[in-house]
Design brief:
The chain is α+β, with helices and mostly antiparallel strands and about 350 residues long. The chain has six helices and 23 strands. Strands 9, 11, 12, 13 and 14 form a five-stranded antiparallel beta sheet that branches. Strands 18-19-21-22-23 form a five-stranded mixed beta barrel.
Amino acid sequence: MIRIAALVIAIAVATAAVAQIAGNLLLSPAPMAARIGTARAAAPPPAQVAPVAAKHAPALPLALKRETTVTGPIVRIGDLVENAGTVANVPIFRAPDLGQTGSVPAARVLEALRPHHIASLETGGLDEVKVTRASRLVTASEIEGRVLRAFAGKSGLPDSRSLAINLDTEISATHVEPNAELGVARFAYDQRTHRFDATFDLPGSPARQPTLRVTGTLVETAEAVVPLRVLAQGEVIKAADVRIERRPKSDAIAIEEVLGFAAKRPLRPGQVIQATDVMKPELVARNETVTISFEAPGMVLSVRGQALESGAKGDVINVLNVQSKRTIQATVSGPGRVTVTAGSPRLAANTNTSHPGQGTE
């Protein structure tokens, strides 16, 4: 009986010990691994275990990056650490403002990584990591173009090619998220005053949605001719002297009404040429010696004369016939040349050519 009792007690003690070991394995992963390793050492020959161990590739070394570019308002572990693995998407810092670059001390990065059980991180002797927030720069010209597209074809306005914008204040370039487009939040236009008021959404931080307000005046434009250099009074305008620009619609004239004409007054570069600024080029100057051509059917006679007036082609001016000392009117036909055309001879209509006393048959 005594031996049987002792045997029962021994079995109970052994059972309790096994239960305690099993409880430690479930609550503590590290002892479990150690004990599994010990069990493998006493397992069958290594040739049977080697194929299982070969499935696990060695972990890539963790290394701190020298610099990084992030998209969005958050910096994640993978942005700062090479080969971060499963914790790469864990956020740890706030990113700089759009388009800006900031630096994070390496010691602060290590401190932020500590709760995530990242060990043996290679810093490579770096003192800091530079972080740049990716962005797209929106220029003033892009904003102006967006305003024109918002109003073109509406409220009686022409298309954007025939519109110009005068801003109340200068627009500064601004940063938005990469690939983001300006969204029109609100716009208004007064047809009477031609004034507009537009507000745009600037894609940025999701916590706050910044806006940009633009005000000014819309102006209808047309093609205009402007000089490229100073044109003196009387100078004949050539194609190389001018160019065509879109300007506020006014009394501007077409290029055909400018080329070959003369400047009526000095014209400055960039000044819109209007109808009152040009004239036909003067081909004959006052007191200039000219050639007077008398033209009649089958006959042309040329004599020397003196212009008493200046004139352009087609103008009728007074000319002194030097030979006869008579003043006549002639038409300017070319440089230093005027023309007098004789009228057709007038014939008496229904003239009776029969002799007196003769009748007609």
